[in-house]
Amino acid sequence: xxxxxxxxxxxxxxxxxxxxxxxxxxxxxDSQLLNTVNHVxxxxxxxxxxxxxxxxxxxAMTNCGKxxxxxxxxGYRYDxxxxxxxxxxxxxxxxxxxxxxxAANDAGYNNFESNACLxxxxxxxxxxxxxxxxxxxxxxxxxxxxxxxxxxxxLFGGLTRKEKVMAKELKHGDVVxxxxxxxxxxxxxxxxxxxxxxxxxxxxxxxxxxxAS
Length: 213
Ligand code: SIN
Ligand code: FE2
Fold this sequence. Notes:
The protein is mostly beta strands. The protein is built from 2 helices and 15 strands.
């Protein structure tokens, strides 16, 4: 695994050997990203998916790109079709793809070509418990995660549930990149605190860009 390139910049919080937060990295694109999220959601609406055990995932989700991450009673997986519309997911917007590639590159992961973007929407008291992203075919590709709206506490653990968990505040425009030996680390977010962001309102939007297949 290569080392990371961007280490000296004061806007970089390198919180582990193969993981970093690019602070405010997406701020200049925020309106464009949010308009794009709305456009995606007009085609494939946010919904609360069900886990195999029948519980509902509290964050509302939708996807764009060739593959979308879905969960239902038969399991977690990627699918080219939105089960709600029976159509393909909305196309990967150029602005998402380019941002993810640039962020990955700045973090030392060259030529990251994302083909799946999971969009999560959190409102007050909604979080996500610790989990691993492991439904992708190839873990050599990093994960790029873009935060918009109300700040949240991101939790980053180890490769097992028992290891110590780090807590990092993610603000509007922050981009997290993790990969290499960190790729399968447990992570999640604490329940969203009450707050209002001028562009997003009382919510947080997270874009997770991955190469699914
Ligand atoms: C996720 O792991 O799917 C989302 C994490 C986040 O919302 O920052
Ligand atoms: Fe995740």
